[in-house]
Amino acid sequence: MDARIDMFHNEIGAAFGKRFANAALVLDRSPLPKATQELVSLRASQINGCGFCVDMHTKDAAAAGETPLRLNLVAAWREATVFTEAERAALAFAEEGTRLADAHRGVSDETWAQVRAHYDDDQVAALVCLVALINAANRINVIVRNPAGSYEPGMFAAMTG
Q1: What gap in Å lies between CA 138 and CA 91, rounded to an integer?
Q2: pLDDT digit string (tens) for 39-73?
Q3: Torsion angle of alpha carbons 19, 24, 29, 34, nearest 10°?
Q4: Residue 47: per-residue pLDDT
Q5: Long-range contacts of 73-77 (CB under 8 A, 24+ apart)
Q6: Of 7, 24, 62, 65, which has the fewest Cβ atoms less than 10 A away?
Q7: Is the separation of the CB atoms in 100 and 132 below 8 Å?
Q8: Residue ranges per domain, the chain?
């Protein structure tokens, strides 16, 4: 299976990708816990059916020390006992922020309050930006049908700068 277009070797796609990678770097350097970032990115990618991003964030999370048990339970996080209350709040936020067309009200006041109870202003700002960024990445990859399976942790590090 091949992508419809190779965005990494297209002048416009590559220029956009570099800026996209720099935005991701801002989030990577934020105080939002790395495990939370990967869990949120994985959950949004599952919802959006983005195989490329599911592959990426599963592998990045595993490389950062995430356990197979927790990775396997992300899709069923509400019924799983392996996530902290803070992670559960972030996962609810990711789902509501991703399913805008389904809920048309965005993130509920209840979920917002749960997020605010566990994260400071900088972490909340990073979480908001992360949900926006992963949803954009999912849409790009789904539209061009980037295939899953070939991602290696760190392979986009050279794109920043």
Answers
A1: 17
A2: 999 999 999 999 999 999 999 999 999 999 999 99
A3: -170
A4: 97
A5: 74/39, 74/42, 74/43, 74/46, 75/43, 75/46, 77/39, 77/43
A6: 65
A7: no
A8: 7-146
DSSP 8-class letter at 84: -
Q: Which CATH superfamily is domain 7-146 in?
A: AhpD-like (1.20.1290.10)
What span, in angstroms and rounded, lies between the C-alpha atoms of 160 and 86? Answer: 30
Amino acid sitting at position 62: A
The pLDDT of residue 161:
57
- Give the rounded distance of the alpha carbon of 135 from its chain centre: 7
Spatial distance between the Cα atoms of 25 and 29, rounded to a whole number of angstroms: 6
Coil, strand or helix at 55: helix
Residue type, 82: V
pLDDT at 1: 80
Q: Which residues, in sequence order, are CB contacts of 31 under 8 Å at separation 6+?
A: 120, 122, 123, 126
What stretches in the chain show pLDDT beneath 70?
A: 157-161
Tokens of 77: 């996080």
Note the pLDDT of residue 158. 62
What is the reported pLDDT for 159? 61
> Strand locations in the chain, DSSP E?
none
